[in-house]
Records
---
Amino acid sequence: MWLNPEEVLLKNALKLWITERSNNYFLLQRRRGHGEPTGKITGLLVGALDTVLDSNARVTPFRILLQIPGSQISWVIASGAAIEEVNRHWDWLTRNLLHSLSVFENKDDVAGFVKGKVKGLIAEELRGRQAALEDDPERFREALLKFERHFGLPSSEKLVTYFSCCCWKGRVPRQGFLYLSTNHISFYSFLLGKEGLEFVIPWAEVVRLERVSSGLMHDAVRLVTRQKIREFSMFLNRDEAFGVIAQMCDIALRRLLDSEGLELDRQLLQPGHINKRMLEEQALREYVLALFRLPRSEHLQEVASCSVWTPHARTHTPGTLYSTDQYLCFSSREEGHCTLILPLQEVLSIEKAESTSVLPNPVIVSVRSKKAFQFIELQERDELVETLSLRLRALQWKVSMFRDKKHSRRSVSSPTPYYTFYYDTGLSDEEEIEEQVLRNTVNSEALMTAFHQSQPGTNGNKSMETVKERLWEDHFSEFGRGVHMFKTEKIQRLVAMGIPESLRGELWMTLSDACSELESHEGYYSSLVQKSMGQNTLATDEIERDLHRSLPDHPAFQNPTGIAALRRVLTAYAHRNPKIGYCQSMNILASVLLLYARAQVDQSVFEELIRERLPDLADHFPDLSSLSSVSLSWFLTLFLSVLPFSCAVCVVDCFFYSGIKAIFQLGLAVLEANTALLCSSTDDGQALMILTGFLEQVGTEESPCVPSSPPPSAGPEDGQEPLTVKYTNITDLINEANEKFGDLSVRQIERLRCRHRIQVLQAHEDTTKENALRIVSSEVSMSPENLSDAYDLFKTEHLISLYWGDSSSVAAAEASSWRQTDAGRSFTERQYRLDRAQFKSLYCLLAPWPVNSEQHTDTLGNRTFTLLSHDKDGLVSFKEFASWLDTLYSGELNEKVRLLYRLHIPPALTESEDDPSLLKSPLLSSNRPLYVTRTQETESGEEKSYQEQLKQMLKDLGKEKEKDVDKPLPLMNQHEFIQFCKTLYSLFHGDLEENELFQAIATVTSLVLQIGRLEESDWTVSFAQILASLLTEQALVNFFEKPVDLAAKLAEARGKQYHQRAMLLSLQHKVR
C-alpha cells in the first residue's frame, strides 16, 4: 500500500534491508530474514526482533524508497506484506513517474513532486475505500461529490456521513442535507432552482447540543455556538443522527482541545481515517470499557452472542462475549444481571468441545485455578477460537520472555496480588496453610494492617464483621473468588452491606482488577517514585501543605509512615501526569486507597439526571448550579469528605463494584430523600445545611451516627416545630438508591458523558481564554473587546493548521515545549502557540501598513516571528503576539520605530537572508560605499539652528533612555540601515501622502548618514539617532501616529482568515 512519505536514513537502513530492485530514484527492498534460507545469523536476529515487537510496531517485509541521487536521506513511500503488491506499485512508479523526474534540475523539486503524487494516490485510495465501507457506496460517492462542490474545503477534510433534514431559519424550514466531516458540520439547501441556506461550522465552535420539541419543531436537534443557534429537524431517525453528531463533536473537541487529558483511540487521532463504521465501533468500545471498567488502552477485538454456564443458577445465561487485547468479558442481555471478566493472563487454554444438540458450538476456557468456563451457541466458533488462541499464545510467550525467573516462582513472600496464590496449583499442605494466612492478611503493605481505627461498640463490630465475612465466604464458594468470579445482584447486595475490613483490600483490588495491572506492570510504581522524589515543583509544594490535612482523625495519618506513603503516591502521580499535577481532594482519595490498597463531566451529567429523575426539585431550582456546588465534593471525593468514615468506605465499596453509576444513584437518592425540605428552603445556604445535616446523620449498624448538633430546619415559621432529619442507615440508603434508580444504565451514562463533555471542554476553553486575557491585559493598552477578538484569531489559526495543515510538526513542537518544563510559563501561556507559517498568515492579515511587495511582507513576517520567539522554541505565545499587536496599534511613535529598528538587526535579521525588496533606489544602492556629502544651505543660520535642534533631541532621548528598563539596542551597520530604509519606502507605498513621505524619508536618510559614526571603515548608527532624525519630519511623525482602527482590522481579518486559508490549502493539494 502507498504510505505518507516518511524519512529514513539510508546508511542505517541497509543493515536491516536488502535491495532487490533499484533505479536512479527508487529502491525496492526486502527485510532481512524474510524469504531467506534458515540458519543465517543476520536473518535470525532481524526475524527475532520483528517477532518481539508488538503488532502495531512490526515492519512489513517489503518496501519502496524514494532516493535522491547523492543524498543519504530517503523516504518510504510504499510497503506490503507480499512481493506481488509491492511490484505493482513499482511498475506504476517506473511507468508513470520515472521519465518525468529527469526534467527536474533541483533535487528538492524531485522529492516534492514524488511525495505530492504519492499523497494524491493515498487520497484517491482512501476516498474509494471510504465509499466502499458505506451501506450504499454509490449514494455516498454522490454525496461526497456534492460536499466537495458546495463547500470548497481542502481535500483533507473528509466526509464521514450525511443526513437529510430541515434547518430552521426563523419560522421557515429549509430542506437540505447536513454533512458531518472530520472538522466541521455543514448544511446546504437548494430550493426551487435557487441557492438556499449554506453554512459551515467548525466542531471547535460548538458549545452545546440539545434535543428540543416545541411548537413547529418536533424532535429537533439544537446546535449552539458562541455566535449563533442552529436547529435541525425532520430526521428519518433523530436518535441516530443526534448520537452521531454528539460523537463527532466529542471526538473533534477531544482531538483538538484536550487530547492529553481525555485519551482517544489512536485511529481517531487520524481524522482522515474516520468513517461511520468506525464511529459505531468506537461507541461500542467506549461502552464495553465502561461496563467492565477496563483500562483505556484496551481495544475491542471481537463481539459474539453466546450463553455461559452459570453454576450458581444451574443454567446457561444468554448474553454477549466481548474480547479485547487482554480480556474476555461476558455480559448478560440484561445489563448488570450477570457479568464475568477473564484476564487472558489467567487463562491457560481456549478449546473447542464436541458440539451436540444440547450444547451447540461449545468452547471451554480453562484458568489457572483448575476452573473452566463453558460458552455455547457461538457463531463462527472456529475462527474465534483460533484468533483467541493466537492472542493467548502471544501473551504467554511475551510473559515468559520478559518476566524475571525469580518473580515467576511461586513464593509466599512474593509481592504479587492475593488472587494469584488462590489460582496457583500444586501447593503442599503447608503452603495451603500459609496461603490462607496471606489471604486473610490481604496485603502486608496496607496501612490498615498497622493502623486500625478503633470505633465505639467494639464487640458489636466484631460480631457484625464475622457475619459479613461468613456471608462473603459463602458467596465465594458459590460464585467463585478472584477477578473472574460471577458478578450478580447478590454481590451487589453484599457490597451495599459494606465489605468486611478483612476483605476490603482484597476485593477492591479484585473488583477494580488493579491486581492484573500490578502484575503486568511490575516495578512501574517503584520506578515512578524514584524518578519523582527530590523534585521541587508547584505540585509538590501543594502536596506538602495538604499531607497533614488528609483524614486527620485517622491514626495512619498521624504517623510518619502513613504520611510518607501518601507523599509517594501523590508525588508519583503528579510526576506521571504533569498537566494535571495535584488537584483538590486527591489527598483524601489517596488516603483512603492507601488504607486498603472524572468529575466536571459527571457533574454536568448529574444536573441532567436531576432534571430527568427529580422534576419537582428541578422546578424549585431552575438554576441547578447551587446543588452542583454542594454535590461537587460527592464526585471529587466519592462522599469521603461528607460522610462519616465508616459509611464513606461503604460508598467506595459500591464504586469499585458499580463504577461511577453508584455515585450517581446515591447522589439522586440523597436529593430524593430531602426533596420536601429542599423545596421549602429559601436560599442556597439553607439547602446546603439541609444536605450537610442529612449526611451527618448517616451511620452503620455497627456505629450508628449520633448527631453532635441539632439538625437543620427547613425554615419553619414562628410557632412551628423544626423539621428534623432522622438517623439513616448507609446500607438502607444504598439499597434504596439501587431500587429507585437501578434502571440507570452504563450505556445511558456514557451517552450523557459524550454530550456533556462538549460543554465541559468548551467551558474549560472559556476559562483558559479568561485566564490568558487576564495575564495579558495588564501588559497591553488595547481594549478588552479587541484583545478578546485577537485571542480568537490566534486560536483559530492554530486550529486551522490542525484541520488541514501539517499538524504533526505543530504537535511535536508543542510537546517539545512541554518537555522543556519552562518554569517561566504557566499552562495558560502555553495552551496555544503558533509556528512560523501560522504566525506569518496572521501577520499578513493584521499588519497595519500596506507593503508594496508580497515578498517584502513575507520577509517582515519572518523577521517578526524570529524576534518574538526569543526563547528559541520555534513557537510564539499569545502573550508575545498580543504585545506585538499592541505596539503596532496602540504604541507610541518611539515604540513603533523601536520595533522596526529591531526587525533590521540581529537576531531578527540574519546574515544569510536574501535581499527581499524589489525597490532599487540609487541613494540606497549597496553596490558602492555609503557616503553622502553635506547639503549646502543658503543660510548658515538655519543650518546651525537645525544642528542645535538635533543635538537637543538626542539629549532628551538620552534622558528617557536612562529611565528605560530595556537594555540598549545594538548599533545598526550599513547593510542593516539599507534594509531599514527599504522597509520604510515599502511601508509608504500607496499612502495618500506618499510623495511627502518619500521626500521626508530622503531628508532623514541624508541626516542620519551625516550623524552616523565611521570607525575603521565601519559605519554605524544608533536607535536614538534614527528616532531623533525621524522626529524632525512632521510627515513621518503623522504617519506613525496616525490612528488605525484595530477593531475594524480584526473584523476584516476574521472574515478573511478562514476562507483564505481553506482556499490556499485546497490549491496546494491540487498542485500536489
---
Amino acid sequence: MAGNDWINSYLEAILDVGTPLDDKKSSLLLRERGRFSPTRYFVEEVITGFDETDLYRSWIKASSTRSPQERNTRLENMCWRIWNLARKKKQIEGEEAQRSAKRRLERERGRRDATADMSEDLSEGEKGDTISDISSHGDGLRSRMPRISSVDVLETWFSQHKERKLYIVLISIHGLIRGENMELGRDSDTGGQVKYVVELATALGTMPGVYRVDLLTRQISSSEVDWSYGEPTEMLTLGRPETSMQEIGESGGAYIVRIPFGPRDKYISKELLWPYIQEFVDGALTHITNMSKVLGEQIGGGQPVWPVAIHGHYADAGDSAALLSGALNVPMLFTGHSLGRDKLEQLVKQGRQSREEINATYKITRRIEAEELCLDASEIVITSTRQEIAEQWGLYDGFDVILERTLRVRMKRIVSCYGRYMPRMVVIPPGMEFNNIVEHDGDIEGEPEGNEEASATPDPPIWFEIMRFFTNPRKPMILALARPDPKKNITTLVKAFGECRPLRELANLTLIMGNRENIDEMSSANAAYLTTILKLIDKYDLYGQVAYPKHHKQSDVPEIYRLAAKTKGVFINPAFIEPFGLTLIEASANGLPIVATKNGGPVDIHRVLDNGLLVDPHEQKGIADALLKLVADKQLWMKCRQNGLKNIHLFSWPEHCKTYLARIASCKPRQPQWQSRDDNSETTESGSPGDSLRDIQDISLNLKLSLDGEKGEESGNVDGGLDSAETMKDTTDKLTNTVLAVSKEMLRSPKSIEKADQNSISTKFPALRRRRRILVIALDCFDSLEGSSTLLKVIREIFEAARLNHGLASIGFILSTALTMFETYRLLQSGGLSATDFDAFICNSGSELYYSSLNTDEVGSPEFPFLFDLDYSSHIDYRWGGEGLRKTLVRWATSIVDKDDNEAQMVIEDEQHSSTHCFAFQVKKPSMVPSIKDLRKLLRIRGLRCHVLYSHGGSMLHVLPVLASRSQALRYLYLRWGMELSNMVVIVGETGNTDYNGLLGGVPKTLILKGVGCSVPSHLGNRGYTSTDVVSLEHSENVTIDEGHGSKEIRSALVTLGVLKG
C-alpha cells in the first residue's frame, strides 16, 4: 500500500489547492488552454504513475471513512472521478489498439490487391535497394558525400551548372518569418522550421544554376508583431558573392515574398489558417504568374520562366503546394517537418484527451488529409532521416514501404505499374552555415592564468547572463536548448541531474528554453511545463548549479554553444522523439560532444559524426550515466569533439543544396501544357508527336463512347430534342471531325504550331481575353427534371440581370457542372438557351473543358459548337491511374451489394457518362456506399491517386485525376487566358455536390442563392473534419440571397460585389 500513501498525499494536495472541482466547465483532463493549475499537475502524477487497482483502493478507503465533514466527502468524490479518468485512459488505449490492428489488415489487403493486379513476379534479386539510395550511413555515406568545403568540388559543380537559370518556389505559411533577427521560440509556430526554410532559401540563392528563389509566406500587418512581417518583399541574398550584378540580373537572388490572406490585422496560429488556404493559393498563383513573365523577359527570351519545382513545408504549405502544382503543372516537393499521424498517436497514448478533443485543439484530421494529398501530388518527399520514412510516413494510407519498392523496381524495368504511384522518399539532412564558426585557442586547452584581462575581445553579454546563475561558472556546462514542451523531456533531464550527486559536483546545467516575459502570459501548456521544471529545481535545491535565462537572441545561440565548449561541456537533446535534431548539428559544429535520444534522427547523425552517446529518453539513470561519462573522461570528450569537427561539413548547406538540386533535376520536367507545346528549345518525351496522337485517339474514342451512350439513357434525363439515331450519329461524326481537326494542328512542326498559336489560337477565344468580369454559374441542382428546370430558371435570371448592365460585352459567362458536355448542351437546348451565351464550359466535375464557337471550320459542326481543350486534358493527366484505376473501381463496385435484395449490386459502372479523365458510377442506394474519405483511403492504400466526389444528390460517383476539380479548372482558365481571379464571381446554391466547399474559398467573390441546390447525404461527404476547416466565408467577399429571388435581387447582389454598376 505504499503506492496508496503517495496517491493519498497527492489527493490531499489537490484539496489544499482549492480548485473548484464542481465547476462543470472545468475538466481533470490536461488541456492546452487556460492558466496553469497545480491540480492538473497532481492529477497527471496520479494517472500516469499508479495502477488502476491502487486508485480503486484509495476510493474504497475514502468511502469507508466517510464523515459529515465536507472535506472527506470531496475526497471520496475526487477519488471516484480520478479513478474513472484512469479507466477512460485505459479504454482509449484499447480502442487505439483495435484501430491499429484494423489498419494493419487494411494495408495488407490493399498490398495483396495491388500485387495481384501487377501480375509479373519479381525475383529475389529484383526487389530493389533500401528505402532511399542516399540514406545509408557510416562509411558508405561518407564515400558518397565528399566534403563540400573542398574548392574543387564547388568549382566542378559550378562549371557544370552555371548555364542553368532555375526558378524555385518554397512555401512556409505559418509562424513569423524574416531573414534577420528571427524570433525563434516566440511561440510554437516560430521554431526550427522557420530557421530551416530561411536558410534553405538563402543557400539555394547562392548555388550555381539557380537564378531566383521565392520563399512564400503570410503577410501579417498587425500591431501584435513587428512591422517587418507586413513588408511584401524582403531580399535574402543577391546570389553567389563572386557573381557580377550583370550575371545576377534585375530579379535574381533569394527573396521572402509575403502573400496577404486570412485576417489582415491579426496574427493567428497554424491551426486557424486552414480555412484560408485557397485564398493563399490564388494570391501565390498571381505572384508566380507575374514573376514568370518578368523572368521570361530577363532570361527566357520572352517566354515565361515557370518554377522548376514548388516545395511545400509542413502540412498547410504542402496542401497549398499541391494545388499550385496542379494549377501550374510543375513538379512538387514536400517536407513534413513533423507529421500529424505521428503526433496523433503520441497524444492518444498519453490518454489525456480523446480523439475528438485532440482534433478540436489541433485540427489534426484536416492536417492528416493535407499530408495524404501531399503524398498524392508530390514527385519527391524529402525527409531528414530513415526513421521518418519507415516509422512516420509508414503510418499513412498513401505510402507503403514494400509497395513503393516494388513499384520503383518495376519502373526501372519499364514494366507497367497499372496506374499505381508512390512518391520518391529521399533523405537529405538539413544543412547548416559554418562560416561564422571560429575555433578559439581557449576552447580546448583553456586560457592561461591571468590572461583574461589582457584579452582583446570582451566576453559576449549572453555569457554573463548565463554565468550569473552559477556558484562556480568554470565547471563543465551541460547544455540543453529546447522550448518548454513536454515532448522535449526536460523534466527527466533535471531529475537525472538532481539525483546524480557526482554529476552535480562535476558540472553545471544550462537550460535555454525560449524567451519569456511572464510565465502567466505564456501558453498554458508551456507555462505548466516550465513551472514543473522550476519546481524540480527547487525540489533538488539546484540553485547555483542550474541556469535558465529568460531572454536570448538568435545571434546569441552560437556564443552559447561556444561557452559550453569552452568549459569542456556537453550538449544534450533528451526529447522522447526527435524528427532530426538540428541543434545536435549546431552543437557539433561548435566542438561539443553530444548526448541524444535514441529515437529518431539523432541515430543517423550519430552514425555519421560518431561524437557522443545515445540514450533511452525514458531512462533517467542512463541519461545521468552518459553525461557523467563524457564530462569525466577527458580523452573520450576530446575524441568526440574531434570526430564531430572532422565530419560536420557533411551537413553543410552547400552539400544539402547540391543533393537537393540533383534530385530536382531527376524529376521529369513539367510546365503548363500550352507553354510546353510552344517551347521550341527542347523536345520532351511528353511533347512528342506520338504522344499527342495517342492522347487525341484516346479522347476521340471516349467522346464517341460518351455520345453513343446517350442512346440508352433513361427517360428521367432531360430531353434535349436530339433523340433520333440519325441526329446522334451526325453529331458524333462531326464531333469526331472536330477532334481530328485539332489533332492536325497539334501534329504540325514547332514553327507551324507557334504561328498557329499567334494567328489562330489567340483569336479563337477573343471574348475570354477581353472580358473584364466573369460570372461562373456552378449550381448543383440537376438531380431531377425539377432541379434542371430550376437551373435553367436561374441562368435566365442571371442573364437578365446582366443584360440590364450597359457594358454587357465586358461580362463573360462560364457554366460549371457535373454533367457531360453533351448533357449540358441538351439541357441548354431544352431551355431555349444558346451555347454561345457562354464562353466556356467546365464539365464532368472539372475533368473536361470546352469553349463555344460560331466558326464551323473550327468546331466541325454547327450542331455541336464546342471546342475541346486538349491542353487542359494533358494538364490534369498527372498520376492518372487510367485503366488500372478503372478495373480496381469496377471490382470494388461489384462488392457493394444489398443482401436484403438478392445480392443486387448497388454501384454500377456508367460507361455512358465516363470519359478519358472521369470514371462515372451510378449509386443505387447511397446509404450503402462509403464516404469520400473511406473511398480515398481504399484507393490510396492500393497506390492509386485520384479525386473522388458524389454528385446528383448522391446518385452518381465521379472519380477524377487527383488535382482535377472545378475550382482548379478556374485557375487554369486564369493562367491560360489571363482572366483575373478577383474579377470572377462564382454563383453557387445553398448546397451542392461533395466538392461544393472547394468552390467557395479563394480570391473569387461568391454569390450564394438560398433554396437552390441538391444536397448529397451528409455521410457521403464526410472527410473527418468540418467545412469550417476548408473555407471561411467570414472574411471573403460573398453575398447571400434569400429564397424567392429573381433577376432584380441577383442584379442588386452583383452590384454589391462590384460586378455591375448601380
---
Amino acid sequence: MGVALTRSAQWTAAGYGTRTLEITPLNEAILKEIMMFVESFIYKYPQEARYVFVEPLEWKTDLDPSAFESGYIVGETTVKSEEVDENGQPLLFLSVPHIKIRNFGQLSRFLLIAKDTKLKEAQACVEANRDPVAKILGLDYNTMKEDTSTVNILDKVTKGEDSENEIKMKIARLLSQLDLHLLNHSLKHISLEISLNPTSVKNDIEMLKNFSGKGEQTVLESISYTSDYEFSNGCRAPPWRQIHGEICYVLVKPHDVETLCITCSAEGVFLNGGKTDNEGEINYERKGEIYKDLVTFLKEKSEKFSENMSKQEKRFSNKKEKKEPTNDPPEKEEAAPVQKAITGSGKRTLEKNQINFGKSQMTKRLEPSLSWKATVRFKEYRSLLRDPQEEKHRRRPERSGPPVKPGRAQLVRKSTEKIEEIVSESSSESEEDEEPLDRQEANADLPSEYWQIQKLVKYLKGGNQTATVIALCSMKDFNLAQETCQLAIRDVGGLEVLINLLDTDEVKCKIGSLKILKEISHNPQIRRNIVDLGGLPVMVNTLDSPHKSLKCLAAETIANVAKFRRARQAVRRYGGITKLVALLDCGKSSAELAQSSLYDARDVEVARCGALALWSCSKSYTNKEAIRKAGGIPLLARLLKTSHENMLIPVVGTLQECASEENYRAAIKAERIIENLVKNLNSENEQLQEHCAMAIYQCAEDKETRDLVRLHGGLKRLASLLDNTDNKERLAAVTGAIWKCSISKENVTKFREYKAIETLVGLLTDQPEEVLVNVVGALGECCQDYENRVLVRKCGGIPPLVNLLVGVNQALLVNVTKAIGACAVEPESMMIIDRLDGVRLLWSLLKNPHPEVKASAAWALCPCIQNTKDAGEMVRSFVGGLELVVNLLKSDNKEVLASVCAAITNIAKDQENLAVITDRGVVPLLSKLANTNNDKLRRHLAEAISHCCMWGRNRVAFGEYKAVAPLVHYLKSDDPNVHRATAQALYQLSEDADNCVTIHENGAVKRRKMENLFENCHLCQRKVETHLRCVARSARDRSGSAAGVMPHGLHRWKCSVCTVTRRGSKDASSQ
C-alpha cells in the first residue's frame, strides 16, 4: 500500500510531510479501492481484523460523536470503543477532532458509520499516515524505504513462531497484495485517460473564436491566449511548465460569469489561480476539477454557453440534413464541412450527450414528417456519443437490443471473460448498440391512428386541465405497443409535452403521462429521445411522490428507459439509485409479505417496480457499487423470501447482475441468499428458474457458495432441470450453474450420483453455443476423476468433443481442449481421440490467435503425447508442428509459455524430436525465459531444460546462454514442485564442469537448507546436500579437470522418494 501511495497517487507539490492528495480521478479511484478493501476486511478476515496495530492510525475527522451508536461509549466531545486491547486501551478513541484507531475491525466499522463522508475520511487518513504499513506492523516494515520488498517483509515476520506472528504474516501478505492491486489499477486507469495535444486544443479554441463576439446568440463574449508566442511543438506555455504537461493558458469571458483563466494540459482542462494583480503573472495552481476538454469545462461553468453551444450544433445538424442527398457518396461529401466545423472539441462536446441530432426537427414540427430516415442518424454519430467518465469500467460487452432478456447469453460472455482474465466484472458500461429501425419511404401509406394521435397531441399542447386528462385517456386507448403510434407521438412533439406534464401538480395528468411513457419507452428510439429531452431527472424526482401509483409508474418507466449506458448514468447522477433502493423497503417482513392486505399490496408493487428499475440499472459497474452502498443487498435478501413470483423475478435478476462482483458475492453469502436461490429453483416459473440458476452461476466462483448449493439440495434440482431442453435460455443458465458447481470434487460425486454426466454428454450435439460452452466446461471438470472419464467414454462422449475442435468460439475451444486433455489421461479414450484425428486438431489450435486457446491446446497435448504409442513418430508426422511449438516460446503470455514448456518436456523424451527442436533453436529460447518469477512457468521451464540437456552439447549451450544462474534462484520458491524440477535440471546441467562452477558461484549450497526444500523427503535431503557438496568440490577441482569431465569419485544415484537421478560421492551413496 505504501508503494502505491508513493508512486501512483498524485500529491501536491508542497514539501515532504505537508503534501496532500490532489483532487483527481486517479486518487479517487485509489481511495475507493482502499475503502473497499477495509470495508470487507472484517467479514473476510475476522481473526486478522482483531489484530492490534503497533501504532494507532491518527487523523483529524469531521465525524460528530453523535454518529456513533451501539458498541461505543459516547461523550460530549469524546468517543471510546467498548472493545479494548490487552492493556485496556480502547481500539477506537475520538477526541474531537482527533481520532485514533488500532485495528482493522474498528477501521471497517468507522467507514460504515461515516457513510457519505467516508471518501473524505479515507483521504484524511491516508494524508496523515503516509506509511500505514509501518504503523500497522511496526517500523521494520517501513514501506518508505527503497530496499523494502514483500519478500523482506515476510522474511522478517516468519522469524517468530507464535500465533501473533502468523497473523502478522497474513496481514503483511494481504497488504502486499493490495499494494500490487493498487499499482495495477492505477496503470489501467492511467491507460484509459484521454490525453489532449496542442493540435486538438488549438482546434477547440479556433472553433470557439468563430462562435464568439457580441450578441446573445454567440457562445462567448471573447476567448484569447495569454501568450502570443507559439513554440515549435505547438505549445504556448513556458518550457518550465511544459514539463508538467501544460500546453497553454486561455482567458475566457462567458456571457453569464466572470472572466476565467484556464490551463489546457495533456491530462485535461482546469481553472487556475488567474493573473496576479501586481505583475500580471499567472498563478499556475489548480483551483478545481479536471475536465476532459475545453468545451466540457465551459458547459459546466456557464449555462449560457451550454445553451448557445447546443444551438450551434443543432444548426450544423439541420444544415446537414437539408443538404443531404439520397445517394451515399454525396452524403459523405456533404458531411465534410460539418465535420470540419466541429473537429476537436465539437466531437467531444457531443460526448456529453447534450444534443440529439433529431431533436431540433422534433421540437419544431407541428405537422407529421415522412422523412423517417433523416430524423435521427444514430449510426453516424454513435461513436461520438461516448462518456469517458466510465470508460475504466468498460471491461465487458453489454447486451444489445430489447429482445435479449437480462442474463441471456451472459454465460458465454462470462466464460470468455474469465478465460481472458479481464478484471471483474458481469455486464459493463459499454454503450448499447441500439439502432433506429429502418422506416418506410415517403410513398408508404400511414394508418389512420397516426393522424388521430397527432390531433390528440395538439389538444395536449393547447387544452385546459380537463381537455388534457381526456386527451391522455383517449391516447391510452390506442395500441401504444405499435411502432407507428409510438413514433406519431414523437414526431409531433408529444414527448416534450408528456415530460412537461410530469412537472405539474396534477396527479391525474402525471399518472396519464407516465402510463403512456411507460408503454412507448419500449422503443429504442423513444427511450433515447426521452433522455435527450431531460425526462429522467423528472422521473427520478417523481420517485419521492407520496402517491404510490406515481412511484410505480415512474420506476417502471425508468426500467424501460435505462437500457443503455447514458440513461443508466443519468439515473445515478440525479440520485435515482438511492431512491430506487428506498422503494424496496416496503416495511414488511417476509412472512407478512405473503399475507398482505389490498392496501399493503401497493407497497409490494412499489417494491417490485423498484427492483425492476434496479435490474436495468445494475448492468453498470458503477451503479452496482451505488446499489451496494445504498444498502440494497439486505433489502433484496428480504424480498427474496417472499412467495410473489412477479416480485422474485426482478429481485433475482438484480442479484444475478450484481453477483459478478466479488463484494456482492461476499455480501450474498453473509445475507444467506444462496439458500433462497436454491429454494426458488423448485418454482414452476421457468423465467425464475433461469435467473436463479444464473445467479448461482455467478456466485459459484467461491468454494463456500458451491458447498452451500450442495448442502441445500441445489445440485439435485439442477440435474433434474437438464431434462427440459426446450427453453434454451434456461438450459444455458442451468448448465452454467452445473459447470461452476463442478469445480468442487464433492459436487462432482453428487452429479455422478444424480446421473447428470450422462445427460450432459447427450447435450453435446444440436445445442446453441452458449449451452455447449457450459456443457463442455462441466464435463472438463468432471473428467478430472477416473470414474467420470470412463463414464464419458462409455456414453460416447469422445467423438462429439473432438468434433467441437473445429469451431471458432473462443470460450468453447478453451473448454473443449481442457475436456479432451482430461479424457486423454485414460489410454482407451486416447486411442479414440487419436483415431478421430483429435491430436492433429489440437495441434492446429496452436495457431489460434487467442492466447487462451493456444495455452489450453498445449496443455491438452501433454497427456496425448504421454499416452500415445509411438508418440515420437506421431509428433513428427505433423508437418511444421515442432517448429510451431518452438516459435510459441516467443509469446508474451505466461500461460502460453508454461503450457508450451510442458509440451516440450514430453516432446523431448523422443531423441529424434529433441534433435529437431534443438536445430530449431529451442535452447536459446528456453534460456531467455529463465529470468521469470512465475512459479508455474519456472516448474515447467526447469523440466523442459532438464529433458533438453540430453542431446548433443545442449548442456554447454544452456551455460553459454546464461540459463544456469537463474535456475539456482528457483530454490527460493515456496512451491515444492519447482524445487523438484529445478533439482532435476541442475543435475543435468552439472554434467558440464563449467556449469558446476556457475552453480557453486551462485551459492546453491548456501542458498537454503535442503530440509526446507524437501520437508517430506529425508533421504532426498541428505543426498541432494551430498550432490551439492560434490558440485562445490567440482568447482574447487575445476583447474585440475578437463572441460566437461567430472572430478574423480563422483557417481550417479537415484532418490527413492522424488525419483530424481542425482550425483554424489561414493561416501554419499552409503548414507
